[in-house]
Amino acid sequence: MDKERRVSEEKLASAEYSDRICLNYIDFLSASCKKRWSFVDAIYGVIPFFGMITRKSATSLPSSTEPLKDLALQIISTQVSDEINIARLITLAQQQHIGQFDILMPYPLSESQLVAIRQEYARPLDLEQHDDRLSVMLPQLAH
Known about the structure:
It is built from seven helices and four strands. The protein is an alpha+beta fold. α2 (about 25-35) packs across α5 (about 65-75), α5 packs across α6 and α6 (about 80-95) packs across α7 (about 110-120).
């Protein structure tokens, strides 16, 4: 009976994650490495001008994750730390009115990295690490 309950709990946990947006950080880094950078792209990649990058789409809610992914490709940079990139993704999601989402990481983050992300984002948020999946909840947007 314990085994049945454990399997049921695992299915519930996976169903919970399947309903959420999941951003694949590995894909963003890979695309960032392959991208032909213009001067403006390079500046945006190093200096986080979120308002300038996302101004055109912040007024409408995305119908899918594609607009979010397109915008994320503009701000993810291999020139900065993972912590800064994750904080940028969180800020982008907040600007797109997305209150809960997951980020698939290439590795589990350490507690010091989670602290660095919280400091970089500098607003209230909940972060939970589940192996290589980072769950993000922005309390002011989550319902």
